[in-house]
């Protein structure tokens, strides 16, 4: 949360900062645990079962009861050799735990133990065998239970044969130099033969890629531009510092070179020592192949299905939009204003119906819609607030007095429930008979699909972009003038939120220098604060719905510094409070650790410390410019630094595990450099002032 007051929005929530960390399996391993039967000592609630930790989805998790000890175990189906266990902890992690194996699920053998765990993403090399593998936790790090996004068990042997997949594509790339901003290192690993990396015109020069894990390298393909190397080496490294040569030549002829090599490493480097021309070195593409299959990964989006799992069947249409709603009670007060029945039928995922706390938090509770005429009902979609129904019925009626049940359950799970039903009637009702907690019933959306009725066509979303999007619709290259172009940007002075200690000035802390926007944080007393900085946005100048939004930025390093590139829903400007407008954080980096980047979504049901987000560890991002981007359409968002995926937020997954997707409308762009705050922590004597955030460009493509 970077705008507005947190307290009201999250007063009833238990907030821990949710961080998902990309995990990879080495090519020499087989993932044994995914989708296998998984059980646990306890679960916090129905939305966090044990199976969530082995489903391959880093947006779902298992969480336990709030006590010690706790355990989670997976049945691999047969006895297997175990070589590695990967644990992706949620913020509620264990400080002390053991990894145990068993042949029968009863007698256990310990193969790993710690009492000093720090959570996060842990990759543990182990040596053992068993059909069952268990994480047995004995001390929690927080007052909550223990929680795992993913629990992965690996085993098996090294596969034979050199793979054909390019494992370097989209990975983090760096170089000794670049000729200009248009030829960055990342261009040699983007899968696009029309983009390239080129170096300064001197010897030696190098280009390297981080594969993410140590792998067996068996092939490298170099697609040289006319400025090629006559002498170069292919080198590998496990740490990015100590290098081993696996190929070398002094008679390179350029063109496309398909090289068979033998070596291993996490990093692969092309080290050029003699140029063929007076120019530098230039590569259209570098491909790296590894022994056997490429590593399993959860960080690459699959192609979108032709039909989303939540789409209605057949030729049905949305019947309930803008239709009259009626309920047992409704809430309309300072805590939910208004939460009347019509809000469940307005196709607005950020508004909701709720029963009234005065006399309405009882069973039964109900809400129904008048479709205007008799309809054939085929599907009902319920997007629940945390106040959901465990037991309820979907009923139809022709007179709103006599009801027929067409669906019933006693095991409602909340979040998004898509119910394929068959029924006929003018009226459709959710009739709740058992609440999930001490509150009432509440629905963000209650959608009825079918044929007949008197449907009103809802406004259509813009067409989804086709990625890679290439139509540049807005940009600022920051290559003219001496300060911010106020025809493109709105200056946003004042104090910040979230415990920030700076005062944002009116253009005093921004400038254009050397083709970049500079946002400078200073130790300077102004506006009642002892530090100043800059914040600009495109409100009332430019907004977008969908597309590729990117910026090339160099961030500062220092405790308490907090550079960010993000977006806010434009309805914030017309009075809708945060987080109901939605917030898209493309990039947040904490100056105390510039090797990590966060991308996060904020909405009414997940915000502030509980935002739907992910971080990855990468190179030191303060040393050079990097491209931060999101590709956004009606089904998902994919966040990247350079071409390395940080987060894939799938709409259906978010709705079925966290809450409403509130991003199908216009958003405006924001750049700022905060000082201090709840997230980055305080500054200290080592924090450099002035500190500068450099922005080479901001671009939006459709």
Automatic annotation (TrEMBL):
SUPFAM superfamilies for this protein:
Concanavalin A-like lectins/glucanases (SSF49899), Galactose-binding domain-like (SSF49785)
Give the UniProt family note.
Belongs to the glycosyl hydrolase 16 family.
Tree of life domain: Bacteria
InterPro entries of this UniProt entry? Beta-glucanase-like, ConA-like_dom_sf, FA58C, Galactose-bd-like_sf, Glycosyl_Hydrlase_16
Q: Locate the region Disordered.
A: 35-60, 292-321
- Protein keywords: Signal
Query: In this entry, which stretches build a coiled coil?
Result: none
Q: Please report the name of this protein according to its UniProt entry.
A: Discoidin domain-containing protein
| Domain spans labelled F5/8 type C | 15-156, 157-291, 306-451
Q: Where is the GH16 domain?
A: 449-702
Signal sequence coordinates: 1-27
Q: From which organism does this entry originate?
A: Dactylosporangium maewongense
Sorted alphabetically, which SMART domains does this protein's record hold? FA58C
Pfam families membership:
F5_F8_type_C (PF00754), Glyco_hydro_16 (PF00722)
């Amino acid at each position: 949360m970077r705008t507005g007051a947190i307290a009201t929005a999250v007063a009833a929530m238990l907030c821990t900062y949710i961080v998902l960390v990309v995990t990879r399996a080495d090519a020499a391993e087989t993932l044994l645990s995914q989708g296998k039967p998984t059980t646990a000592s306890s679960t916090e609630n129905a939305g966090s079962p044990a199976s969530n930790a082995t489903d391959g989805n880093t947006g779902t998790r298992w969480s336990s009861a709030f006590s010690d000890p706790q355990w989670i175990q997976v049945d691999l189906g047969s006895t297997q050799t175990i070589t590695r266990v990967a644990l992706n902890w949620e913020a509620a992690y264990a400080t002390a735990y053991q990894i145990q194996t068993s042949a029968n699920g009863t007698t256990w053998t310990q193969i790993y133990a710690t009492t000093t765990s720090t959570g996060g993403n842990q990759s543990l090399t182990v040596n053992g065998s068993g059909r069952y593998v268990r994480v047995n936790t004995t001390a929690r790090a927080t007052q909550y239970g223990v929680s795992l996004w993913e629990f992965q068990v690996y085993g098996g042997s090294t596969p034979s044969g050199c793979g054909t997949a390019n494992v370097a594509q989209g990975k983090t790339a760096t170089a000794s130099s670049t000729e200009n901003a248009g030829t960055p290192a990342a261009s040699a690993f983007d899968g696009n033969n029309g983009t390239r990396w080129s170096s300064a015109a001197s010897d030696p020069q190098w280009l390297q890629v981080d594969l993410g894990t140590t792998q067996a390298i068996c092939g490298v393909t170099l697609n040289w531009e006319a400025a090629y190397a006559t002498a170069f080496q292919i080198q590998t490294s496990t740490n990015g510092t100590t290098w081993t040569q696996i190929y070398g030549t002094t008679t390179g002829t350029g063109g496309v070179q398909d090289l068979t090599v033998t070596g291993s490493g996490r990093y692969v480097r092309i080290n050029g020592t003699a140029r063929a021309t007076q120019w530098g070195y230039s590569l259209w593409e570098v491909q790296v192949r590894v022994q056997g299959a490429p590593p399993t990964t959860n960080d690459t989006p699959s192609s979108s299905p032709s039909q989303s799992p939540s789409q209605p069947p057949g030729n049905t249409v949305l019947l309930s939009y803008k239709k009259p709603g009626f309920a047992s009670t409704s809430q309309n007060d300072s805590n939910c204003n208004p939460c009347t029945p019509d809000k469940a039928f307005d196709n607005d995922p950020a508004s909701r119906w709720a029963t009234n706390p005065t006399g309405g938090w009882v069973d039964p509770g109900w809400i129904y819609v008048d479709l205007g005429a008799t309809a054939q009902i085929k599907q009902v979609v319920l997007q629940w607030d945390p106040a959901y129904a465990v037991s309820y019925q979907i009923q139809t009626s022709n007179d709103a007095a006599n009801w027929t049940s067409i669906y019933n359950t006693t095991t409602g799970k909340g979040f998004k429930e898509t119910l394929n039903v068959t029924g006929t009637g003018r009226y459709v009702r959710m009739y709740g008979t058992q609440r999930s907690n001490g509150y009432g019933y509440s629905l963000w959306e209650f959608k009825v699909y079918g044929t007949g009725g008197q449907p009103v066509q809802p406004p259509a979303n813009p067409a989804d972009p086709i990625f890679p999007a290439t139509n540049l619709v807005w940009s600022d290259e920051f290559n003219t003038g001496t300060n911010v172009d106020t025809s493109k940007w709105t200056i946003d002075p004042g104090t910040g939120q979230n415990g920030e200690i700076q005062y944002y000035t009116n253009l005093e802390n921004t400038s254009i220098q050397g083709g970049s926007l500079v946002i400078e944080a200073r130790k300077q007393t102004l506006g009642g604060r002892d530090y100043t900085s800059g914040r600009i946005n495109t409100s009332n100048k430019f907004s977008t719905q969908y597309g590729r939004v990117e910026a090339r930025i160099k961030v500062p390093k220092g405790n308490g510094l907090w550079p960010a590139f993000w977006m806010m829903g434009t309805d914030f400007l017309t009075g809708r409070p945060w987080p109901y407008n939605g917030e898209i954080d493309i990039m947040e980096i904490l100056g105390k650790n510039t090797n990590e980047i966060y991308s996060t979504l904020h909405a009414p049901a997940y915000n502030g410390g509980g935002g739907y987000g992910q971080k990855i560890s990468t190179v030191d991002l303060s040393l050079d410019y990097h491209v931060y981007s999101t590709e956004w359409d009606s089904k998902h968002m994919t966040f990247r630094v350079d071409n390395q995926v940080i987060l894939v937020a799938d709409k259906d997954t978010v709705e079925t595990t966290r809450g409403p997707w509130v991003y199908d409308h216009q958003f405006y762009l924001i750049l700022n450099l905060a000082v201090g705050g709840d997230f980055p922590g305080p500054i200290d004597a080592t924090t450099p002032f002035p500190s500068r955030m450099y922005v080479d460009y901001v671009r939006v493509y459709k």
